[in-house]
Structure formats: C-alpha cells, structure tokens
Design brief:
about 160 residues, Four Helix Bundle (Hemerythrin (Met), subunit A), mainly alpha, Hemerythrin superfamily protein, globular, about 0% strand, single chain
C-alpha cells in the first residue's frame, strides 16, 4: 500500500494524527528488521527504506511547520521539550539523507536504518509521554491544527509522488 493511499484517513486531531504516524513508522521499521533477518533482496530493502524516509520526512515537516510552532506558543516559558525535538529532527534528517544517498550494498546501510529506528523510538516516547499530554491540557485547538496538518501532509505526499 502506498503512502498516498494510506493518508486518505482524516484524523480527529493533531495528536492523533502524529500518533498514527508514529505507529505506522514503527510498523515499517519492524518490516525492515524482518527483511534483514530474512536476508531480503536489495531492491526490497531499498524500497522499504525509502518509504520509511519519505514518511519520516513528511512527518517531521508537518510537526515543524505546525505542531512545534503551536507548542512553542502554548508552552511559552517551558519550551525545552520542543527544543530537544527540533534537535532530534535535525539528527534524523542527517541519517535520512545518508540513507537516501546510499544503497543497500553500502556496508553501513542497515546500521543507519537501525540507528534511525532507535533514534525515532526514543523521540516518539518523549513526544507521546511528555509533550503530547502537556499540549492536550494546554487548551490548544488540536482539531483545527490536525486539519491543517493533514492537508499539508497530503500536499507533501503528492509533491513527493510527482517527483518520483
């Protein structure tokens, strides 16, 4: 199933949208790990790795453009979690770039995917356990924000599909 076809669902709110993204990328990382253990072919590995990179790139973009901006406003004076998230996104983007620019034959390819998975897992845990609860209780209009984020996500996925 392609990213675009999975993205037609409409989230109830921004936090639910991001949580669904987290679940989806965990599933993709698990599939990649299973592919490694099954000694899957390079074409399969690259296709799945690029899907992971696409999903993470789109997710990070909508978080940075919408969610983190709203979080900074709602948590004024207590923005440490957002600052850390921004730095973690920068690290993830660097790994994504390395993955996209390489191929499964690269001896570090699988290691990069593993490190990215571990990095994303830690980041997701911080968001879901700390940032999301703070924002949910802050009065943030998560429904309106979710609609804007979903629309931007769909636009980004369409742009990326057109660039392929």
């Amino acid at each position: 199933m392609s990213a675009a076809s999975r993205r037609s669902r409409a989230p109830a709110d921004a936090i639910q949208l991001l949580t669904a993204d987290h679940k989806e990328v965990r599933t993709l990382f698990k599939a990649y790990s299973q592919l490694i253990h099954a000694e899957g072919g390079d074409d399969e590995k690259q296709m799945l790795a690029l899907e992971i990179c696409t999903q993470l790139t789109v997710h990070a973009t909508i978080e940075e453009e919408f969610f983190y901006a709203a979080a900074r406003q709602m948590l004024a004076g207590d923005e440490d979690l957002v600052d850390v998230a921004d730095v973690k996104h920068a690290c993830a983007k660097e790994l994504i770039m390395q993955i996209v620019r390489s191929a499964p034959a690269d001896p570090l390819y699988d290691a990069r995917l593993r490190v990215l998975s571990e990095h994303v897992d830690h980041h997701v845990k911080e968001e879901e356990d700390e940032l999301f609860p703070k924002l949910r209780s802050s009065g943030l209009d998560v429904h309106a924000l979710g609609q804007a984020m979903a629309a931007r996500r769909d636009d980004l996925l369409a742009e990326m599909a057109g660039a392929e």
